[in-house]
Amino acid sequence: MKTAIVYASKHGTTEKVVVSIAEKLIETNEVELFSLKKNSNPDISGFDTVILGSSIYAGKASGKMKAFCKANEPALLQKKIALFICGMHIDKEEQKKELKNAYPKTLQDKAEATELLGGEFLFEQMNFFERFIVKKIAKTNKTVHRIDWKAIDKFVEKLK
Ligand SMILES: Cc1cc2nc3c(=O)[nH]c(=O)nc-3n(C[C@H](O)[C@H](O)[C@H](O)COP(=O)(O)O)c2cc1C
After folding, report:
1. What CATH code would you report for 2-159?
2. Which of 23, 31, 32, 39 is the most buried if burial means most Cβ atoms within 10 Å?
3. pTM
């Protein structure tokens, strides 16, 4: 099985999650990682499975991920797919809404797994504006690690 993981990460948390997923899948799959920051439209034609992951900012998935889904929707619908988001919203229901808005409904209906995989506030990586927003909304000025490792295991199990 050949698996592509296509992801959009701003400060590296989604990338950490992607590496963890890849490490768990590598026993049974040939896995390749594609950062949309480096290549906005990677070629997924040679893959049986495609996992899509994006972080959420101001309630929205990355524009690069949205554009990738739009450009590749017919091809993605021919494959086994799985979708996730990384985010720090404390309200699970709000996070579920963010996940719903992150990917086209056609892909969500087809997906073998859709999951919220947690996130991090990495203050040292944020610019002034981002620090200001997080301080105001999340009421913290400290780095917070909240990647959901259990949810990652669950997500991967669904794909094995
Ligand atoms: C300015 C800012 C806005 C954010 N807005 C949201 C949000 O609306 N919802 C959410 O769940 N997480 C939000 N987050 C949290 C990010 O999704 C979280 O930091 C994530 O781990 C970032 O992943 P990345 O480093 O891969 O981009 C926000 C973070 C920052 C810095």
Report:
1. 3.40.50.360
2. 31
3. 0.98
